Amino acid sequence: MNRKELNPEASASAAFGERLRRLRDERGWTQDELAQRAGYSGAHISAVETDRKSPTLPFAHRIDKSFGTGDLFQRMCRAVRQTALLEGFPEFVRYESQAAEIRLYEVGVVPGLLQTPEYATVLADGAVKRGMITAQQARERVSLVAERQAVFARMHPPMVLAVLDESCIRRPVGPPSVMNAQLLRLMEFADRPNTVLQVAPFDMGATRPFDLPVTVLTLQDRSLISYAESAQRGHLEREIGDVLPMLTAYHFLQAEAISQTASAAMINKLRKGLS
To answer: What is the C-alpha separation between 133 and 13, in angstroms, rounded?
Structure first.
């Protein structure tokens, strides 16, 4: 049987696949035998080994348990994921998953925590067409969206306060069916007992305190971390003297944005216009 030659230097995902095959071969296991131990199909193992499918953290965790390799494959998986993400973002995601409160402001697109898979896929595919990322990196981005949203399924989920610039809900992303489902997801988000959703309308004008996306996290120990993005990189800030002014500005933003009731009415009106 012909086996595809693997080049671990080609990419982080190729290195993951090569290490996976090498350790499997060392133990004399077939792909199906490893699949049985890890709880995946042999076809899935083959696709990851040959770099046709990106590894996920749950998959890497199962592989580490099967091989007894500690967190080796989980660390390799994180390296794979970082190839498609802004500098600073992977570290932010780790803090986000543990936060007690999440305050976010987004411009232009619905934020990842609130995206449907279809909406996330359209955005990622658009980045591929523009040559910004590869198709594999696009799949990684979409997968990460789902993993981040697991925060809502925690035993004690965080309080999430989201203020969306009006452009987030008015900018068409994909066909009407995708936008309709995304706007419905926003309304479902607003109905949760531990969330608040507001729209910052265009007529706020110069009173808007932020021009770029911003997130402020309150961790379990009540410490604060802020994260802000530009087109090229993300910046994580832990110094309380720098984070507090951002929190104050966020409170001002909430005061100036329209109420959750009015925001939901605006979103529902847009949904009706799509039908």
So the answer is: 14
- Separation CA 176–CA 274 (nearest Å): 6
Between CA 47 and CA 45 the distance in angstroms is: 6
Spatial separation of the C-alpha atoms in residues 234 and 244, rounded to whole Å: 18
What stretch of H or E contains 172?
A: none
Q: Are the beta carbons of 137 and 80 closer than 8 angstroms?
A: no
Q: Residue 240 and residue 249: Cα distance in Å, rounded?
A: 14
**pTM score:** 0.70
Q: What is the DSSP string of 62-105?
A: HHHHHHT-TTHHHHHHHHHHHTTS-BTHHHHHHHHTT-SEEEEE
CATH, residue 176: 3.30.870
Helices (H), 173-239: 176-190
Please write the tens of the pLDDT for every residue from 132-176: 778 878 888 898 898 899 999 888 999 999 999 999 999 999 999
Nearest to 77 by CA among 19, 120, 26, 35: 19
- On whether both 28 and 105 belong to a single domain, the answer is no
Last residue of a domain, one of 82, 107, 135: 82
**How many domains is the chain built from?**
2
Q: Which of 66, 82, 98 is the last residue of a domain?
A: 82
